[in-house]
Amino acid sequence: MISVTVAQGSVNRSTAELTAILVFEDKALRTAQRERIRALCGTMPPPLTNGAFTGAAGQTAVIPAPGKAARSIVLLGAGGTTTFGLEPARRAAAAAVQTAQKLFASTIAIEEPDPASVPVASLSPAGSSIEDLGLALAEGVMLAGYRFDKYRTKKPSDFAGVRSCILLAGTERRARALREGVRIARIVSEATYLARDLANAPGNEIYPATLAQRAREAGRRHGFRVTVFDEKRIAKEKMGGLLGVARGSHNPPRFIIMEHTPTRTRRPGGPVVLVGKGVTFDSGGISIKPSANMAEMKMDMSGAAAVIGTMQAVAALRLPVHVIGLVPAAENLPGGNALKPGDIIRHHNGKTSEVDNTDAEGRLILADALSWAARYKPSSLIDLATLTGAVVVALGHVATGMLGTSARAKDALRTAGERTYERVWELPLFDEYEKLIKSDIADVKNVGGRWGGAITAAFFLKQFVGTMPWVHLDIAGTAILEESGPYTRRGGSGVGVRLLTEYLRHY
């Protein structure tokens, strides 16, 4: 991961191979900005004189620095000052990294936005601080530098990527605040890297036992407790959904329990319980999926990856919140002993479900985990799952579907989503949808037909929540990306780690 530090200083003294300056498109700032850039470069750069670069968000322009052949300056379009905030800062910093990679520059410096042009009070979302700005800039740098290349054969001549970044602050007071933001960003970005690595790893590397081992390793390094149930203990606890889904695979299931217990808690009441779907590969089982794009179903455990990553971040930050993470882990394969359509499962809380479609397996294993969560009497229960294709149809790859019974948790997650840009969008849990999952022979059936699939899947989960304050996050569209973004790459995004950590930082 790219090392990010903070120093008080100016662009003139930067010795980095690439120095980045944020430029705004406001007409009122144009003259002062242009004159400053002229002074740095010795002449007015052509992109400014010919109008090719205006400072619009996402624009970049590379200018050689005079007399310093090894150095370049990149102008980063930051948009208007009235809309500038954490996400534009994150994207601008990521653009600096991407530009450096194209130029084979291993060191970069990014100047913080001019406080006179963008005062703290004007940063969006409202209430953002200098610390938050440092967090966003550092996240943009660190997350943009992620690569999953462990299986590529490297050549000695291969460019190793950007190694380090310095954030340049105008004053020492601002530098101290930026440093605290960078500290948090490093911990959260490392946890996001873990979630991305787990999701991107092939199915022959990550299966239930090895996923549990990775959770144990994270717990040992960062100081949270990890307990793993094998198939015998899972059977003893009558987790029929987890056992049933795993029946077709020679890799037995695991149930992973992680716990962060702070020395002092911020508020009374039960813990926050996080539940992540851990289907390490999903073929669909007997209701097998089409072969096209089935390989991406190694990422069907992205909810589990997010929960493991969040537990690492929470422990490393030493948050004063009691947090428990639960991961039911299984492979869904069409073996000779696999679940069949029409089978009946009895779950941990005693309720039965009819398996109408074995490709709706995630809700079957989550049902056991949600039932298990009741023993902790949680103050908040949140599950994350790549649960339905229907949510991708509804929201694409832009927003996570959110449903649940806790208005307080939904509001807090919505706020955290705006601050991290891991945005959530609420879907309804109207009672009329519940009839779609009624079974003639069991308490509930695991699919509700063609319409409202993301909602009926949530209604299935709701049967196993009882009165617990609960939120369900369907991350099927945001966890598995078809194309790269400003600081994400095609494949596993690690979504959920930054969202949940922000939620818990302000819990």
Task: Provide a descriptive summary of the structure in words.
The chain folds into two domains: 3-192, Leucine Aminopeptidase, subunit E, domain 1; 201-386 and 436-479, 3-Layer(aba) Sandwich (Aminopeptidase), CATH 3.40.630.10. It has helices spanning 27-41, 46-49, 86-102, 130-144, 172-200, 208-222, 231-236, 240-246, 302-317, 362-373, 389-395, 407-420, 453-462, 476-479, 497-505; strands at 3-8, 18-23, 60-64, 72-77, 107-111, 164-169, 225-229, 254-260, 272-276, 278-282, 323-332, 344-346, 352-354, 380-385, 400-404, 424-426, 444-445, 470-474, 480-481, 491-492. The strands form four sheets. Strands 7, 8, 9, 10, 11, 14, 15, 16 and 18 form a nine-stranded mixed sheet that branches. Strands 1-6-5-2-4-3 form a six-stranded mixed sheet, covered by helices on one side. It starts with a strand and ends with a helix. The protein is built from 15 helices and 20 strands. 36% of the residues lie in helices and 19% in strands. The chain is elongated, with a radius of gyration of 24 Å. With 507 residues, the protein is α/β, with parallel strands linked by helices. α6 packs parallel to α9 (302-317) and α8 (240-246) runs antiparallel to α10.
